[in-house]
Amino acid sequence: MTDTRRRVKVYTLNEDRQWDDRGTGHVSSGYVERLKGMSLLVRAESDGSLLLESKINPNTAYQKQQDTLIVWSEAENYDLALSFQEKAGCDEIWEKICQVQGKDPSVDITQDLVDESEEERFDDMSSPGLELPSCELSRLEEIAELVASSLPSPLRREKLALALENEGYIKKLLELFHVCEDLENIEGLHHLYEIIKGIFLLNRTALFEVMFSEECIMDVIGCLEYDPALSQPRKHREFLTKTAKFKEVIPISDPELKQKIHQTYRVQYIQDMVLPTPSVFEENMLSTLHSFIFFNKVEIVGMLQEDEKFLTDLFAQLTDEATDEEKRQELVNFLKEFCAFSQTLQPQNRDAFFKTLSNMGILPALEVILGMDDTQVRSAATDIFSYLVEYNPSMVREFVMQEAQQNDDDILLINLIIEHMICDTDPELGGAVQLMGLLRTLVDPENMLATANKTEKTEFLGFFYKHCMHVLTAPLLANTTEDKPSKDDFQTAQLLALVLELLTFCVEHHTYHIKNYIINKDILRRVLVLMASKHAFLALCALRFKRKIIGLKDEFYNRYIMKSFLFEPVVKAFLNNGSRYNLMNSAIIEMFEFIRVEDIKSLTAHVIENYWKALEDVDYVQTFKGLKLRFEQQRERQDNPKLDSMRSILRNHRYRRDARTLEDEEEMWFNTDEDDMEDGEAVVSPSDKTKNDDDIMDPISKFMERKKLKESEEKEVLLKTNLSGRQSPSFKLSLSSGTKTSLTSQSPATNLPGSPGSPGSPGSPGSPGSVPKSTSQTAAITTKGGLVGLVDYPDDDEDDDEDEDKDDALPLAKKAKFES
């Protein structure tokens, strides 16, 4: 289909009240069986796919705007627009819509936008069309009241708008405005302000086209100067005619384009500066004004983009050394404004826009501009660069990598950006903050592309660390040659904080590139010099950098930290901070707590071996004592690896042992009747009779050793660290010589063999492998060696200790019985 009359763009209104471009295609109307009615169909011109299929609903309000737009709402929050290439096509489809709805095609809106009560609608339908009072000075108050009373009712608004259109009423009102100004009739001027403001709220494109025409717009602005709420009128017209000058940096040959630029600037000024901020109830009444500006901007960008001679001249003059500074500043400001306008474009259109600028050589041009001394020109160039980076960082990365093959590091675009950041003269470093954000976007691997042939991340980061990182870290290295920062003024501290923020980002996202750089250049040691800064925010930035490194739990980093003793500046800062409860104190403690919780063994040992004396008196948190405990446990495991392995074996069995997993010999012991054990003689399986006494005692010795170790550890926790609320176990363990084993309980009452409370007694209620819970429960069995009491625990012991002793007590008693 090649009929340009039917060529349209489909737009939908998003949540931010901005129009999203859904594609370009050709529109037609026809009966759709599925929708059971006449419908609008738009098929994409690229592949013929269906962009829009919308039934022409008899009750939907369609609006025609600016001769080439049809706008309507499909649902409560779903607005659609068709933007036609030609007016004839718009008129043709408008006639189809009006035909389905039974409306006159001369109207610009087919339905009321808001439902009214039936009673109000009946009253309005029965009344004739709205009659406007004659346009005279004496009747201005009456006209103002009529406009104000019509605004709440959609139907009356519609009638008022039609009356204003048909009678050319707006031009008559503007003639009265001149009369009132000449006569200095302030009351009349106040009425005109209310009338013109009310006409804006009618939200009608046809009225806007009259008001924003070349002959009327300045008078409309004049009416809006006389706000009754102000003691003195505003001087908007004076600003627009004398202060705001239209600068044609490159001659625009198209008069229509020039007029459109003037109109858009003035309408934007009315919206932003002249009209009062709309209330919640009035906000939607200005939606047509938003749309008017939006589509004007789209049109301007499109017309300029298509004018190749204009853009060619623009970039030629920008990069020409003969261009004087004032002219160059105007050219850069124009280009900045041009890019700002492009933000209203939809993604497809924006793609085409930036592709055009790229082909014209915008990046080399920016490089030239950024190398100039004029700060205003550089600032504008930075804004343009930010538009490019936000739109397509890959395009910028590709340019700087190609450029590196031809130029020295000093004149690379990305190094120019870093230098401007470092040399920002603004005390608040506003420009440096903006540039740091752009650098962060450029080095962010999340927006880097990966293809089958190449990986942008590998290539660009390799380039960045080779050619640019030394420029970024130069102020940091220059300021940290001593034990304290050589310059510690506020502006330097702010700059170094920005650099550290970017380096911290790199640690998190760049893995081996930044790791090699930090270790080879000893960057962390230099950064920690800043812990001595008088500016707390900078010291915290340095600490955050180190915390990010420790958080990676990378042994390469850990070895580097230990070899260079890089906890020393942190410990010094902690001690210098004293007992003050502030962010520095909390952040340092959190870092050590992380090492303890994550059990980073190498750092735990390093901290305790080198800094324990300085930290042992810190008792308002248990972090450092907890680290010491970790260290001692770790050292014990290293000294006695067999014991450690035995612990792990017992720990593993502890969760698996129950009645079903007992060994055969245990089952034999539990199943033996009392009658079988005459004179305390134990029943032993034939295989066990062959075992010698040493073999039997060996596991008992290991078990007792484990128990002693456990007791000593728990006592240490109680007495030294107070880390746990666990009480000291109320039992003593002693291993007698030779073949005797005795466990004596501190409990005053001991159950005798065979008593009902003794789970070890054959025939007692207790089930094998479990000990019933009671306040004081002790088990005992009679052997040839004497009385052996099984261990009991107080009620407040932890569950895991309870379980372990339930599991371990029975095998011990059994083995003691075997031995005897």
Automatic annotation (TrEMBL):
Compositionally biased residues, Low complexity: 730-747
Pfam families: EVH1_PP4R3 (PF22972), PP4R3 (PF04802)
Domain Serine/threonine-protein phosphatase 4 regulatory subunit 3-like central: 142-633
Biased composition (Acidic residues): 670-681, 793-807
GO molecular function, a single term: protein phosphatase activator activity
Positions of the UniProt region annotated as Disordered: 670-699, 720-820
InterPro entries found in the cross-reference section: ARM-like, ARM-type_fold, EVH1_PP4R3, P4R3-like_central_dom, PH-like_dom_sf, PP4R3-like
Domain (PP4R3 EVH1-like): residue spans on this chain: 5-101
GO biological process: DNA damage response
Biased composition (Polar residues): 772-781
GO cellular component, one term: cytosol
Similarity comment text for this entry: Belongs to the SMEK family.
Protein name according to UniProt: SMEK homolog 1
Organism: Ursus americanus (American black bear)
Encoding gene (name): PPP4R3A
